[in-house]
Amino acid sequence: MQKLLEVDKLASGYGRIQIVRDISFSLATGECLGLFGPNGHGKSTLLKAISGLLPCWSGSIRFAGQTISNASPRKIVEAGLILVPQGNQLFPEMTVGETLRLGAFANAARAEEASNLERAYSIFPRLKERDRQQVWSLSGGERQMVAIGVGLMGNPKLLILDEPTLGLAPRIKDELCDAIGAVSKHGVPLVVVEQDVEFLLGLVDRLILIDHGSAVREFSAANSIGHDEIMDMYFGDGKVA
Fold first, then answer.
1. How many Cβ atoms from other residues are within 10 Å of residue 10's Cβ?
2. Which of 45, 59, 108, 210 could anchor a disulfide with 10, C-beta 3.0 to 4.6 Å?
3. Is it true that domain 3-235 has CATH number 3.40.50.410?
4. 125: helix, coil or strand?
5. Euclidean distance between the first and final Cα of the chain, in Å?
6. pLDDT tens digits for 27-56?
7. With a threshold of 0.85, does the pTM exceed it?
Protein backbone atom coordinates (compact mmCIF):
# COMPACT_ATOMS: atom_id res chain seq x y z
CA MET A 1 0.00 0.00 0.00
CA GLN A 2 1.24 3.50 -0.88
CA LYS A 3 2.74 5.48 1.99
CA LEU A 4 1.18 8.87 2.71
CA LEU A 5 3.46 9.85 5.62
CA GLU A 6 6.92 8.44 6.35
CA VAL A 7 8.86 9.47 9.46
CA ASP A 8 12.36 7.99 9.62
CA LYS A 9 14.59 8.28 12.70
CA LEU A 10 13.27 11.74 13.49
CA ALA A 11 14.93 13.74 16.28
CA SER A 12 13.75 17.16 17.45
CA GLY A 13 13.35 19.38 20.50
CA TYR A 14 13.50 22.89 21.93
CA GLY A 15 16.74 24.86 21.99
CA ARG A 16 19.37 22.34 23.03
CA ILE A 17 16.91 20.02 24.76
CA GLN A 18 16.13 16.91 22.75
CA ILE A 19 12.59 15.61 23.18
CA VAL A 20 11.95 13.33 20.17
CA ARG A 21 14.48 10.53 19.80
CA ASP A 22 14.85 8.62 16.53
CA ILE A 23 11.14 7.99 15.99
CA SER A 24 10.16 6.04 12.89
CA PHE A 25 6.69 5.16 11.62
CA SER A 26 4.62 5.37 8.45
CA LEU A 27 1.01 5.89 7.52
CA ALA A 28 -0.58 4.35 4.47
CA THR A 29 -3.07 6.20 2.29
CA GLY A 30 -6.52 5.84 3.82
CA GLU A 31 -5.20 4.68 7.20
CA CYS A 32 -5.79 6.24 10.64
CA LEU A 33 -3.12 6.18 13.35
CA GLY A 34 -3.32 6.86 17.08
CA LEU A 35 -0.45 8.09 19.27
CA PHE A 36 -0.65 7.83 23.06
CA GLY A 37 1.59 7.92 26.11
CA PRO A 38 2.30 9.85 29.32
CA ASN A 39 2.13 13.64 29.38
CA GLY A 40 5.39 15.40 28.58
CA HIS A 41 6.93 12.49 26.67
CA GLY A 42 7.10 14.04 23.20
CA LYS A 43 3.78 13.52 21.44
CA SER A 44 3.03 17.18 20.75
CA THR A 45 6.70 17.85 19.98
CA LEU A 46 6.57 15.10 17.36
CA LEU A 47 3.51 16.65 15.74
CA LYS A 48 5.11 20.11 15.69
CA ALA A 49 8.24 18.73 14.01
CA ILE A 50 6.15 16.95 11.37
CA SER A 51 4.17 20.18 10.79
CA GLY A 52 7.26 22.40 10.46
CA LEU A 53 6.71 24.25 13.74
CA LEU A 54 9.91 22.77 15.20
CA PRO A 55 13.15 21.90 13.39
CA CYS A 56 13.99 18.38 12.32
CA TRP A 57 17.43 17.84 13.91
CA SER A 58 18.07 14.58 12.13
CA GLY A 59 16.18 11.92 10.22
CA SER A 60 13.60 12.65 7.55
CA ILE A 61 9.90 13.26 6.96
CA ARG A 62 8.19 12.49 3.66
CA PHE A 63 4.59 13.35 2.83
CA ALA A 64 2.76 12.31 -0.32
CA GLY A 65 6.08 11.32 -1.88
CA GLN A 66 7.85 14.63 -1.13
CA THR A 67 10.47 15.38 1.52
CA ILE A 68 9.10 17.99 3.94
CA SER A 69 11.83 17.88 6.61
CA ASN A 70 12.35 21.49 7.78
CA ALA A 71 9.96 22.86 5.16
CA SER A 72 8.02 25.96 6.19
CA PRO A 73 4.67 25.42 7.95
CA ARG A 74 2.93 27.24 5.10
CA LYS A 75 4.43 24.91 2.50
CA ILE A 76 3.43 21.89 4.56
CA VAL A 77 -0.13 23.18 4.92
CA GLU A 78 -0.32 23.85 1.19
CA ALA A 79 0.81 20.25 0.59
CA GLY A 80 -2.27 19.13 2.54
CA LEU A 81 -0.83 18.16 5.92
CA ILE A 82 -2.96 20.01 8.48
CA LEU A 83 -2.36 20.09 12.25
CA VAL A 84 -5.18 20.97 14.64
CA PRO A 85 -3.26 21.84 17.85
CA GLN A 86 -4.60 21.16 21.30
CA GLY A 87 -6.49 23.90 23.10
CA ASN A 88 -8.65 25.12 20.12
CA GLN A 89 -6.56 28.24 19.51
CA LEU A 90 -9.25 30.38 17.87
CA PHE A 91 -10.08 34.08 17.52
CA PRO A 92 -12.89 34.58 20.06
CA GLU A 93 -14.48 37.67 18.50
CA MET A 94 -14.93 36.07 15.06
CA THR A 95 -18.10 34.21 14.14
CA VAL A 96 -18.14 30.47 13.47
CA GLY A 97 -18.56 31.03 9.74
CA GLU A 98 -15.74 33.60 9.57
CA THR A 99 -13.43 31.31 11.51
CA LEU A 100 -14.11 28.32 9.30
CA ARG A 101 -13.53 30.28 6.11
CA LEU A 102 -10.23 31.52 7.55
CA GLY A 103 -8.96 27.93 7.26
CA ALA A 104 -9.20 28.05 3.46
CA PHE A 105 -6.20 30.34 2.93
CA ALA A 106 -4.07 28.00 0.76
CA ASN A 107 -4.67 28.10 -3.00
CA ALA A 108 -5.96 24.52 -3.20
CA ALA A 109 -8.21 25.11 -0.20
CA ARG A 110 -9.69 28.31 -1.63
CA ALA A 111 -10.66 26.45 -4.77
CA GLU A 112 -12.57 23.89 -2.66
CA GLU A 113 -13.93 26.29 -0.04
CA ALA A 114 -17.62 25.74 -0.76
CA SER A 115 -17.44 21.94 -0.81
CA ASN A 116 -15.20 21.83 2.28
CA LEU A 117 -17.59 24.11 4.16
CA GLU A 118 -20.48 21.85 3.21
CA ARG A 119 -18.48 18.86 4.46
CA ALA A 120 -17.64 20.58 7.75
CA TYR A 121 -21.29 21.48 8.34
CA SER A 122 -22.45 17.96 7.47
CA ILE A 123 -20.03 16.50 10.04
CA PHE A 124 -20.76 19.20 12.63
CA PRO A 125 -24.38 20.30 12.02
CA ARG A 126 -24.33 22.27 15.27
CA LEU A 127 -21.80 24.64 13.69
CA LYS A 128 -24.16 25.41 10.83
CA GLU A 129 -26.78 26.39 13.42
CA ARG A 130 -24.21 28.73 15.00
CA ASP A 131 -22.74 30.14 11.78
CA ARG A 132 -23.22 33.77 12.89
CA GLN A 133 -22.42 33.18 16.56
CA GLN A 134 -19.13 34.47 17.99
CA VAL A 135 -16.63 31.82 19.00
CA TRP A 136 -16.24 33.09 22.57
CA SER A 137 -19.89 32.24 23.27
CA LEU A 138 -19.54 28.56 22.34
CA SER A 139 -19.08 25.65 24.73
CA GLY A 140 -15.71 23.91 24.95
CA GLY A 141 -16.95 21.03 22.81
CA GLU A 142 -18.31 23.38 20.18
CA ARG A 143 -15.03 25.29 20.03
CA GLN A 144 -13.22 22.01 19.44
CA MET A 145 -15.65 21.28 16.62
CA VAL A 146 -14.77 24.66 15.12
CA ALA A 147 -11.04 23.91 15.42
CA ILE A 148 -11.44 20.61 13.57
CA GLY A 149 -13.69 22.33 11.05
CA VAL A 150 -10.94 24.89 10.36
CA GLY A 151 -8.60 21.96 9.70
CA LEU A 152 -11.10 20.49 7.24
CA MET A 153 -11.32 23.84 5.45
CA GLY A 154 -7.60 23.49 4.69
CA ASN A 155 -8.51 20.70 2.24
CA PRO A 156 -6.36 18.13 4.08
CA LYS A 157 -4.78 15.04 2.58
CA LEU A 158 -3.91 14.22 6.21
CA LEU A 159 -5.50 15.72 9.32
CA ILE A 160 -3.52 15.59 12.59
CA LEU A 161 -5.45 16.13 15.82
CA ASP A 162 -3.58 16.85 19.05
CA GLU A 163 -5.68 15.79 22.07
CA PRO A 164 -9.06 16.84 20.62
CA THR A 165 -10.98 15.79 23.76
CA LEU A 166 -8.78 17.64 26.26
CA GLY A 167 -10.93 18.95 29.11
CA LEU A 168 -14.24 17.76 27.65
CA ALA A 169 -17.03 16.00 29.56
CA PRO A 170 -17.58 12.27 28.76
CA ARG A 171 -20.83 12.90 26.85
CA ILE A 172 -19.16 15.51 24.64
CA LYS A 173 -16.18 13.20 24.11
CA ASP A 174 -18.51 10.50 22.77
CA GLU A 175 -20.15 12.99 20.43
CA LEU A 176 -16.78 14.24 19.21
CA CYS A 177 -15.55 10.67 18.69
CA ASP A 178 -18.51 10.03 16.36
CA ALA A 179 -17.78 13.25 14.47
CA ILE A 180 -14.07 12.48 14.08
CA GLY A 181 -15.04 9.03 12.83
CA ALA A 182 -17.21 10.76 10.24
CA VAL A 183 -14.18 12.80 9.13
CA SER A 184 -12.39 9.52 8.41
CA LYS A 185 -15.44 8.15 6.57
CA HIS A 186 -15.30 11.23 4.33
CA GLY A 187 -11.93 9.95 3.14
CA VAL A 188 -9.58 12.05 5.27
CA PRO A 189 -6.75 10.01 6.88
CA LEU A 190 -6.07 10.87 10.52
CA VAL A 191 -3.26 10.95 13.05
CA VAL A 192 -4.79 11.43 16.50
CA VAL A 193 -2.94 12.04 19.78
CA GLU A 194 -5.00 11.15 22.85
CA GLN A 195 -4.56 10.17 26.47
CA ASP A 196 -7.78 8.15 26.35
CA VAL A 197 -6.76 4.90 24.65
CA GLU A 198 -10.34 3.61 24.56
CA PHE A 199 -11.28 6.74 22.61
CA LEU A 200 -8.53 5.96 20.10
CA LEU A 201 -9.52 2.31 19.75
CA GLY A 202 -12.83 3.38 18.26
CA LEU A 203 -11.17 5.60 15.66
CA VAL A 204 -7.87 4.25 14.37
CA ASP A 205 -6.34 1.23 12.67
CA ARG A 206 -3.05 1.21 14.60
CA LEU A 207 -1.67 2.70 17.80
CA ILE A 208 1.87 3.71 18.79
CA LEU A 209 3.01 4.25 22.37
CA ILE A 210 5.31 7.27 22.74
CA ASP A 211 7.47 7.11 25.87
CA HIS A 212 10.45 9.35 26.74
CA GLY A 213 10.49 10.67 23.19
CA SER A 214 10.64 7.27 21.51
CA ALA A 215 8.14 4.98 19.81
CA VAL A 216 8.34 1.96 22.11
CA ARG A 217 5.43 -0.15 20.95
CA GLU A 218 3.02 -0.43 18.02
CA PHE A 219 -0.06 -2.60 17.78
CA SER A 220 -3.27 -3.03 15.81
CA ALA A 221 -6.40 -1.44 17.23
CA ALA A 222 -8.24 -4.61 16.27
CA ASN A 223 -6.35 -6.53 18.97
CA SER A 224 -7.95 -6.62 22.39
CA ILE A 225 -6.16 -4.51 25.00
CA GLY A 226 -7.13 -4.50 28.66
CA HIS A 227 -7.08 -1.84 31.35
CA ASP A 228 -4.22 -3.53 33.25
CA GLU A 229 -2.11 -3.64 30.11
CA ILE A 230 -2.75 0.04 29.46
CA MET A 231 -1.73 0.90 33.03
CA ASP A 232 1.47 -1.12 32.63
CA MET A 233 2.29 0.74 29.42
CA TYR A 234 1.77 4.11 31.10
CA PHE A 235 3.45 3.40 34.43
CA GLY A 236 5.65 0.37 33.74
CA ASP A 237 8.45 0.03 31.19
CA GLY A 238 6.03 0.25 28.24
CA LYS A 239 7.34 -2.97 26.71
CA VAL A 240 4.43 -5.30 27.21
CA ALA A 241 4.80 -8.63 25.45
1. 22
2. 59
3. no
4. helix
5. 27
6. 999 899 999 988 888 999 999 999 999 999
7. yes
